[in-house]
Design goal:
2 copies of one chain form a homodimer.
Chain A: H1 8-12, E1 16-19, E2 22-27, E3 32-34, E4 37-38, H2 40-54, E5 59-67, E6 74-85, E7 90-98, E8 101-111, E9 121-122, E10 136-137, E11 150-154, H3 160-163, E12 171-178, H4 189-192, E13 211-218, E14 227-232, E15 235-237, E16 240-248, E17 254-263
Antiparallel strand pairs in A: 1-2, 2-6, 3-4, 5-8, 5-13, 6-7, 7-8, 10-11, 11-12, 12-14, 13-17, 14-16, 15-16, 16-17
Amino acid sequence: MATDLSYELDRAVDLTQAGDDRWRGEVDPGWTVGVGVPNGGYLLAIALSGLGRVLPHPDPLAVSAHYVSRSEVGPIEVRTESMRSGVTVSTGEARLVQGRRLRVHVTATYGDLGRLEGPTVVNEPRPEFPPPEACVRAQGPVAPEFVRRFDLRLTPDTAVWATSRPSGVAEMAGWIRFADGREPDTATLPLFADAFPPSTLNVVESLWVPTLELTVHVRARPEPGWLQCRFLTRYLIQGYLEEDGEIWDSAGKLVALSRQMARIHD
Amino acid sequence: MATDLSYELDRAVDLTQAGDDRWRGEVDPGWTVGVGVPNGGYLLAIALSGLGRVLPHPDPLAVSAHYVSRSEVGPIEVRTESMRSGVTVSTGEARLVQGRRLRVHVTATYGDLGRLEGPTVVNEPRPEFPPPEACVRAQGPVAPEFVRRFDLRLTPDTAVWATSRPSGVAEMAGWIRFADGREPDTATLPLFADAFPPSTLNVVESLWVPTLELTVHVRARPEPGWLQCRFLTRYLIQGYLEEDGEIWDSAGKLVALSRQMARIHD
């Protein structure tokens, strides 16, 4: 598989083969959310870079990541395993390992979103946001390093935690695209699903909300352009929370659903 | 670990050790949803029966299952692996194997729900349903075999697919408990999360809606008594769907969230 390395992301998830089902990569300091701590969605993108090479279907449909121990910037090994290849779907796992420590365990079911057949019933309207020009761009010296990889705009309603005080509603919403012009595809939707600030910043002040588990369902191939995203937490219970995400493409089509379990650290 | 075999479920998920991290079980015909096809939540309960023995923490917090190939009634092997044991959480995987075929791959992060500390913010009200006595009991000769293991009552609004015609809203809601009086616990909540009829029966007639992936977040230990459940599908797209579930205990506390990806077969 030829890899296009024109874009930051593709360079940051590039792998070289190191053996049967073993791949070497590099956790890039450009994708960190704190001092030396890589973003969870970025680690998942590294895992999918490996799985995309060993599974026969083109699109991740359901991706589950468990964050087992804290990853670091630097060399990383991806151990892939194709567990089953069927006609319509295939399933595999990828383990991200640093030294001898397992960092992330990913299981993924792949399929072909260009060949689906079956009924469609969508009663949920797409939410209306102010356009990107009327939203608040996440930037500045306090933004985590990895935010610079994106053009990320929060709606004024959900950006208030940063400009004045938490809104009281655990929601983050807005628009996102890669800063360098790379267009979204199905392999990058799981990364976008973990790129917004934690929705709980609008109810509890805590910048450190590590992900324990992240599942992304990819439902359609995105058109080029902005992605419209909404992330919502309904149940923050004794420091543990779910964050549910929806991602629509520039044509207004739902392209992914996400849910993560995370924990607030004081 | 002593196992109480007073109840049907505990007998149906009982395992005997067959080696290091290898366990033998039996897929029981009493837990099938069609001719010889075991329920996905039941298979997950078998996997957790194995993981509960090898991980040090008492409660599954986040459980991800990928259904790799179709399981059958009969002998099954559970291959467990403890991937990391930390102070607050531990993570492991379980593989359900029949013959040489991988059936289900499960990854789970365990913790201790009796020792959580942190803020609680829940703005979502619990939905009000008619009481169990005013709901429609799922039973009769056409009900799948595994439904007999439960006392399952659908709200009149969501039971209409069975009694007259689909409601047009992809929702199933109601009450559930084990038929033999076994009380719910955190290891059984993932089973309850896959026990209701598919929510899509209220929009599309198809009894065969196999699960590709199921993730359950266990958020609290349930009190004894009825569980109140709601399952909703917002996006049925070309035959693929998510089904989102919420489970509250008899004290009105949210105890689990679930999401599965499934596919409608005509």
